[in-house]
Design brief:
The chain is α+β, with helices and mostly antiparallel strands and 121 residues long. It contains three helices and five strands, in the order αββαβββα. A hairpin with a 3-residue loop joins β4 and β5 (91-98).
Length: 121
């Protein structure tokens, strides 16, 4: 069975040191695809998709209040992990990474892979 182009991109992102889970979700909160690395995912991928959608929609309401044209990234930092969200057109990508993952590398890689993700959707 052939691996989908989206799964290939998600696997590439999941290889970054510290990444535990990569999820692509629809903007209404449904999971499109996911890849976990390093064993069990830190959260249920379907739950992350739902929460990522809610956070995205809340952020977009804030963007409207700020008269901002677009959202670059949403970054939530916890004591032991990061969650990074990025709008990829028709969907949202959410990454959960354990510290001490490089936040800069996560953001760079998401931007670098954005077009591949869009074309794979």
């Amino acid at each position: 069975m052939a691996v989908s182009p989206l799964k290939i991109v998600l696997n590439d992102i999941a290889r970054i040191e510290g990444v535990r889970l990569v999820v692509v979700a629809s903007k209404d909160g449904f999971i499109i695809d996911s890849v976990a690395s390093g064993g069990e995912p830190p959260v249920d991928p379907e739950a992350l998709a739902a929460v990522a959608s809610a956070l995205y929609n809340t952020t977009m309401r804030l963007a409207g209040e700020l008269k901002a044209n677009s959202m670059e990234d949403v970054i939530v930092e916890f004591d032991n992990a990061y969650t990074v969200l990025q709008d990829v057109g028709e969907a949202i990508v959410a990454i959960v990474a354990s510290k001490p993952a490089s936040l800069g590398m996560l953001r760079y890689e998401l931007r670098r892979q954005r077009d591949r993700i869009k074309s794979a959707l």
